[in-house]
Amino acid sequence: MLLKGKEVANQIKEEIAKEVQSIVSKGVRPPHLVAVLVGEDGASKTYVKNKELACEKVGFSSTLVRLPDTTSEEELLAKIEEINNDDEIDGLIVQLPLPKHISEHNITQAINPAKDVDGFHDVSVGRLSKGQDTFISATPYGITQLLDRYNIETKGKHCVVVGRSNIVGRPMSILMSGSNKTGNATVTICHRHTVDLKKYTVMADILIVAVGIPEFITADMVKEGATVIDVGITRVDADNKKGYVLKGDVNFDQVEEVAGYITPVPGGVGPMTIIGLMQNTLKSHQAKFNV
Ligand code: L34
After folding, report:
1. Domains in the chain, please, with CATH?
2. Which residues are part of the catalytic machinery?
3. 108 touches 76 (CB < 8 A)
4. Rounded to two decimals, what is the model's pTM?
């Protein structure tokens, strides 16, 4: 069965839009998200555009700050400082990846944790790992909500996460093992140095894959009836109008036959990532205005 991220995302957007209406009816300004995009990466432009569209749909204000790829780290830090100090802004994200000459760590650490709606700051990650209330990074947050909306049991299940990135794999593993509603699973984290990956993936009741290698997971690596979450989204050259097709980390046509539930690419995890971001932005606004 398909886990329709796009459909669930649209439902949640309507719920958020109602909350925004209620906020505005009380005379309070709506939540405001600022996205900073450095450079011209095609995929990043699409993702940021989708974030702006989502803001518009739910009634948030949004501002896109575009900077050239020659921007220095100091210039970017100065921009962040300006946004940190602007009371009219609730959430700030700097779209990744950044040009090589800019340190992602320095940038994520410069963002005011109260506006860190990406959940990438050490404070946010530290709070997440201790089970404290915080901004949860958008992709893992979106995935837990997808599992929740489809009533997929996680308690006592074996969850295998393939990939240990700061953005997805690591926080995902923390959430799945945590004592939260869509947690309480037994978690195995696999990565590039895992020997005999298949040995682990076939044990997964819930298999979450975020490695960025198209069609990496084949049917023989998946247990019958498993829930398969495909975080990968790679542009692969193709002879069509766009010049590419999107491929996940899972060989969908094969794995669909064995999986109980599976997310499509596109229309699966991507739209849920955007929802996670919208919810974090609303949360930041609520912390400030309490309405
Ligand atoms: N700072 N950088 C920061 N925050 C993030 O949360 C992200 N991420 C990842 C990359 N860098 C980031 C995103 O926004 C991945 N990501 C993201 C966001 C949206 C979509 C995919 C990834 C998305 O909209 N996907 C659509 C298809 C888009 C297309 O046509 O290319 C989907 O249906 O999957």
Report:
1. 27-112 (3.40.50.10860), 138-270 (3.40.50.720)
2. 51, 95, 118
3. no
4. 0.98
